[in-house]
């Protein structure tokens, strides 16, 4: 039997579907109130999926039942980041929130100057998030405070990748940027 499946990036429908034949025997299928866009965060017993309806859903991996849903106030177009027992999600209005993975209760919420366009990533104790204001932000995952930012010549579009002391981002300036973060 395949793992449970959540269908992401189904534009115009509010229905999660199994993506391909590899999920044919998945034990459940679930629905949301809007089209979904995610690389759904997965932690032990739940999957978190953001939706264009502005909600972040926590679904049980065992049976697909909804554990909680949080309305973020605007559509979610990037996947959430999940680390330890925290889920971090950004939305189209520029809100960035850290939520308790078990309950959905917010730990903190901050307002960024533009929509979140590149899914948040937490690596080596730092939260990285790309925005439509042409910046990659490095923030504290504990309270959202800004550590530093890097400006590109276009909106940051690709989710950050962190490896060997470097964070890589894609921007609409037609470049992939490699930012040394070892210092």
UniProtKB/TrEMBL annotation:
Q: For this entry, list what GO says about its biological process.
A: amino acid activation for nonribosomal peptide biosynthetic process
Looking up InterPro entries in the UniProt record yields: Beta-ala_Activ/Resist (IPR052091), PQQ_b-propeller_rpt (IPR018391), PQQ_rpt_dom (IPR002372), Quinoprotein_ADH-like_sf (IPR011047)
Region (Disordered) residue ranges read 1-48
- Protein origin, superkingdom: Archaea
Ranges of Basic and acidic residues composition bias in the record: 1-11
* Residue ranges annotated for the Pyrrolo-quinoline quinone repeat domain, each copy included: 53-138
Pfam families, per this entry?
Answer: PQQ_2
Mark out the compositionally biased spans (Basic residues).
12-21
User: Which PANTHER family does the UniProt record give?
Assistant: BETA-ALANINE-ACTIVATING ENZYME
Name the UniProt record assigns to this protein: Pyrrolo-quinoline quinone repeat domain-containing protein
Q: Which organism is it from?
A: Natrinema pallidum
Q: What is the lineage of its organism?
A: Archaea, Methanobacteriati, Methanobacteriota, Stenosarchaea group, Halobacteria
